[in-house]
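Support reply, case 0932

Customer input (verbatim):
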Amino acid sequence: MNGFLGGMPPAEQLMTLNRDDRDGCLVLMVQGEVDLSTGGRLLEAGSEALQQAAGRPVVLDLSGVDFLSSSGMGLLVALHDEGRATRTPLRVVVDETRSVIRPIRTMGLDEVLSLFGSLDEAITA
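Our regenerated output:
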């Protein structure tokens, strides 16, 4: 049997994560889809970053995300709450032109999360 099970590629191909240290911030760059199949990886990487940041801001760059499901929004809230508990600022980058801004606004998360329009804005905040 060749191909992906059920016609779906593995989660590693649906979402990629890259980590970088920039100007005193720990940056997680996310590309692809954030949903039930990929969210666990993002939650794990985000939690690890928040623990290792030791109070430095963690920037979660979603500008390369094409799809954000309700479970993905739930994990953004979980990471936000974890950041507050550890006194580590979580800054989320969401370009106003990307489709993922709509569900964030619809659910009122733009009032909860610290949103920025670009990576540079989030780093210099």
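We compared this against your earlier run and they match. Two observations from our side: The two ends are 51 Å apart (CA to CA). The CA atoms of residues 93 and 119 lie 6 Å apart. Please reopen the case if you see a mismatch on your end.
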